[in-house]
UniProtKB/TrEMBL annotation:
Keywords: Hydrolase
InterPro entries assigned to the protein according to its UniProt record, in alphabetical order: HotDog_dom_sf (IPR029069), PAAI_dom (IPR003736), Thioestr_dom (IPR006683)
Superkingdom of origin: Bacteria
Species annotation: Paracoccus fistulariae
Segments forming domain Thioesterase: 49-123
Pfam families: 4HBT (PF03061)
Protein name per Swiss-Prot or TrEMBL: PaaI family thioesterase
Length: 140
């Protein structure tokens, strides 16, 4: 299936539909191979010890996988997560944004399955791996 939303359209959609997280995430790239999204790390994402919190990394995975699904099906705000699994692999680099590189594994009529590897910007070693399934509402 072809890409139907580019990074600019995706960022505009997120800003409109999810104003509560506006300014925290940015889609950097949308292509046939998947989506790269960024958590714009600030002090609100840190936990004691100065590392990025697990919930912040999970949120990046969820947003980026949502975007890889929407990049193929279009603006379907009510697509929702139905299953999620995340492995935290190593401590993120302090003071760096996190990047999620996502790929769509399967796109069906009702479900989409995708995964994401999360990296500290500038690092080749992933800090987390996530797999999610999204439910796609029926077309009206």
């Amino acid at each position: 299936m072809d890409v139907v939303m580019d990074a600019e359209a995706m960022n505009a959609f997120l800003a409109t539909e999810f104003p509560q997280v506006n300014g925290q995430f940015r889609v950097d790239h949308v292509g046939e191979e998947g989506v790269t999204a960024r958590l714009l790390v600030n002090d609100s994402h840190l936990r004691p010890g100065g590392t990025i919190s697990g919930p912040s990394m999970f949120a990046l995975a969820d947003v980026s996988i949502y975007c890889v699904v929407l990049s193929r099906i279009g603006k379907v705000a009510l697509a929702v997560t139905t299953n999620a699994s995340i492995d935290f692999l190593r401590k993120p680099v302090a003071g760096k944004d996190l990047l999620a590189k996502c790929r769509l594994l399967k796109l069906g009529r009702a479900l989409a399955v995708a995964d994401a590897l999360i990296y500290s910007e500038g690092s080749d070693d992933p800090v987390a791996r996530c797999s999610m399934t999204y439910s796609i509402p029926p077309k009206r």
